Amino acid sequence: MSHFFSHVWKLLILALIFSCADGETKFGTKVIASQFAVTLPDYLSPVKNLNDDAPLQMGNNIQEIYLIARFNDWKDLRKKHADWEIEDYYDFHIENLLLEVQEPTAPGPDSVSINGLNALVGYYEGKLKEDEIYCKLVMLESEKTLYQLLIWTKKGNLPLYEADMDRIIRSFKEV
User: Fold this and answer.
1) Which DSSP letter does residue 26 get?
2) What's the rounded Cα separation, in Å, for the pair 134 and 154?
3) 94, 124 in Cβ contact below 8 A?
4) Torsion angle of the four alpha carbons 105, 40, 21, 153, in this order, in degrees rounded to the nearest 10
5) Which pTM was predicted?
6) Based on C-alpha coordinates, what's the Rg of the chain?
7) Which residues lie across from 40 on neighbouring strands?
8) Among 173, 168, 170, 174, CA closest to 153
C-alpha cells in the first residue's frame, strides 16, 4: 500500500510543478570544460554521482530524466586500442550498459553528422530493477576528441522528453 501512496505523492508533486510553470520549457547553452557546449532544458540541474568521469552530470529526480557527457582524447584512447574507431567505442559502451538491463532492445545506431562532427546515435531500452527505461547513447568524434552523451528516462516518460533529448543531441558543439 505504501508504494501506491508514494506513486500518488510523485504525481501530485509533478502536477504542482507543471501547474506553477508557465508551460514552456526554456533552454540555455552550457559550455563544459572549455571543450564542448550543449543546449539544455531548464528542468535539468547539476547532479553528482551519476558517473565519476563525466564533467557534465544533469538530472531531475522528480521528472526522472538524466544526462551525462564525457570526452576522451584520441591519443589516450589509441594507447589502449590502437585500431579502434568510433564504432568500436559505441559497441563497447552499449555492451557494458546492457549488462545492467534485463530484456534489452538495442538496434544499431544511425551514422549522422551533428554540427560538423561524425556521430553515432542509438538507443536501448529494457528493464532496470523494476523500471522500464529508455536511453540514448551518442558518440561524436572530432579530429582530437571522442565525446559520449548518455540521456535516459523511464520509458513511460519518453513522449514527454524525446523531443528535448533530440534537441540536446543536435545542439552539441565542440568549442
Assistant:
1) -
2) 6
3) yes
4) 20
5) 0.84
6) 17
7) 28
8) 168
